[in-house]
Amino acid sequence: MLFMNFNTKLMNRCFEAGTVHCAANHIYPKPNQNKYKTVQDNNFSTDVLFRPQRVQLKLHVGEEYPLKLRYRHTQDYPVDLYYLMDLSASMEDDKDSLSKLGSKLAAEMQALTRDFRLGFGSFVDKVEMPYVSTVPEKLEHPCDLKSGQPCAAPYGFKNHLKLDTNTSLFSMKVNEAKVSGNLDYPEGGFDAVMQAIVCQKQIGWRQKARHLLVFSSDSDFHFAGDGRLAGLVEPNDMQCYVTDDGNYTHSLVFDYPSISQINQVARQNNINIIFAITESISKIYKHLVGSIEGSSYGILSGDSSNVVKLVRDEYQKIVDSIGLISTGNKQFVDVHFNSSCISGDWKETSTCDGLRPGSEVEFIATIKVLQCPENKNSVTFNIKPRALEDSITVELEIDCDCACEQPGSEGYERNSRSCSWHGNFQCGVCNCDGDWYGDQCQCERNSVTPVHLNENACRMNNNSELCSGFGVCECGVCTCNVRPNANERYYGKFCECDNFTCRRHGGLPCSGPDHGICECGTCVCQWGWSGEACECPDSKENCYPSDSSEECMGRGSCKCGICKCKENYSGKYCDECPSCPGQRCEKYESLVACKVFGTGPLSKEECDMDMSITTVEVDYIDPEEVKNNTQLRVCSFPDDQGCTFLFRYLIDNSTVEVQRTKQCGSDVNVLALVLGVIGGIVFIGLLLLLVWKIVTSIHDHREYVKFEKERSMSKWDRGDNPLYKQATSTFNNPMFGGE
């Protein structure tokens, strides 16, 4: 069936009552009064976070419907946390810390939700060169630990503990896990992440729970393509190959997963990945989380002693935010969201932050049908939060068959006068019979009507070509040429318009469909973009540095999302100035010296001839004032007399303010200085002698007191001393008779 509509005033087909120049009797199909039906709407509970749960909609192509949704943040929503740890030798200290902090981690999480389960897995790398040494003895003991003990044999991934409510097992399993080693710096963490996500049964992920995968490492990661170094050319198939005893069996069969594969399985299985990494590799993982939906990262201390706080904080960030997504096919259905979040101000957003247990937020999901799917008139899709199983199922019935196309219905006229009696008038346009064509079926293919009469109707004006040179005139109607590229076309009554000759940027018309659409040779920009080729973002966010609230540091203007700097300035934020400040200080030095103080290398004639600056004398210049004014520069230079003069200037200003008084030191009295030094030396010498005399006097006094004390305590007298002998001796002669 062929419908032809050339936008004549008589033949307009309208889809919406608000369309310009459309009367109510020209709207086809008629508005559906029974568009919405609630199928399931259970009350909020621990397991029910969204209302309603299932709805039915009936819309026609081009029609929109605002669907009201409600979300409530609950505290005790079930949580499954699987801790995936790098157990290469460099993580030995981290494993010891984790085994000691396991019970504390469990306690912290149980304080946030009573329904909590904990699991543990580890990884090293593929057991193949060049990742791991394949020397037989190295396969058994690839390295030595700090304790002097040999480390365990390498492996790809091991599931040590399935998710379990008995969290005391966690510390035990972490303690039992053996540290191993590999050769190269990157680890095989992506293999482990893939298996931990897709092996739902082996890991124990619950359907109705928030899924957290904590990835802990101090190294980079291998990704798709690196496996070719070991001859592993088969791409990762994103399937589970973990046995019931926890071993990954296909490590040497498939290449490492790609980042997009990790993102895909994480999104499909509602997994929030928390990368707990060290500071040295934070830049790598900062870029990585931007490519994996719902992921985040935190910085570990050297021995992972802060892992409990890291996990708790990152978990809190996740649960305190809600972001909605639609699983509908964007080719057929467009969904965009508005919300007032908790502020009360409605805006276009799919994310609300800062939620607390018990918080309830409302969203409006505007659903618009773009086109009918092939071979069916119904579409079912979900509106759900990122990384949660809860969702709202939308059963959408699309009215693809208009009633006005059927005989006997309103808007259907057989052999209508509006179609020159040569066709049926259906839904506002003509369906012509046989060899008749045209917007009113006024043309016959074998007509004898003079050609020039038809051709005049195909010219925009007397000077224009037939159909603008891009079509063929048939019975006064232009049939536009077909382009080799199916996405490019000519259109319009006179084929005067096209969708491919607009200004291009990046090789695409209007910078691509995300930025704008080419309509009749002119770009019609999407919201948030402007410019002849829609190449310029309306937002000036890229023109503000993180440490300044001024656009382009106040040294330029933001044009097309890029700072256009003033003269002498450059850099992303106009934060670079090759010709200032130091060079201009040096340039002005000699001029200020001669113009204000009459000194310096310049002669009076040279000084008077140079009019590049205007000097103004001020009483005082504070060197610290530059901290409060980024446009100000303060310069100081010594002169020939040993004094310092100060001046200041504003960027882009030729006026230089000079402090009228120099900063000079007072004259030095040499004699006083010499006498002062000599007197100081003599004084210090006398002082030292005095100190020595005092010390020796105190010492002698103490010794005398000690002697007197000992003498007073003696128990003998000098007169009775048995050891005392007089100086004279007496002898008696026995023969002497006394005569």
From TrEMBL:
Record-linked InterPro entries: EGF_integrin_2, Integrin_bsu, Integrin_bsu_cyt_dom, Integrin_bsu_tail, Integrin_bsu_tail_dom_sf, Integrin_bsu_VWA, Integrin_dom_sf, Integrin_I-EGF_CS
Bridged cysteine pairs (disulfide): C143-C151, C199-C240, C341-C352, C372-C635, C400-C404, C427-C467, C432-C441, C443-C458, C473-C478, C475-C510, C480-C495, C497-C502, C518-C523, C520-C552, C525-C534, C536-C543, C558-C563, C560-C607, C565-C574, C585-C594
Stored SMART domains: INB, Integrin_b_cyt, Integrin_B_tail
Ranges where the Integrin beta subunit cytoplasmic domain occurs: 693-739
GO BP term (any one): cell adhesion mediated by integrin
Family: Belongs to the integrin beta chain family.
Single GO molecular function: integrin binding
Coiled-coil regions listed in the entry: none
Domain Integrin beta subunit tail: 585-669
Domain of life according to the entry: Eukaryota
All residue ranges annotated as the Integrin beta subunit VWA domain in the record: 2-402
Keyword Nucleotide-binding part of the UniProt annotation: no
Transmembrane segments: 670-692
Origin species: Zootermopsis nevadensis
Protein localization: Cell membrane; Lateral cell membrane
Topology relative to the membrane: Single-pass type I membrane protein
PROSITE patterns referenced in this protein's UniProt entry, alphabetically: I_EGF_1 (PS00243), I_EGF_2 (PS52047)
Record-level GO cellular component terms: cell surface; focal adhesion; integrin complex; lateral plasma membrane; myofibril; neuron projection; somatodendritic compartment
This protein's UniProt keywords: Cell adhesion, Cell membrane, Disulfide bond, Glycoprotein, Integrin, Membrane, Phosphoprotein, Receptor, Repeat, Signal, Transmembrane, Transmembrane helix
Protein's name in the database: Integrin beta
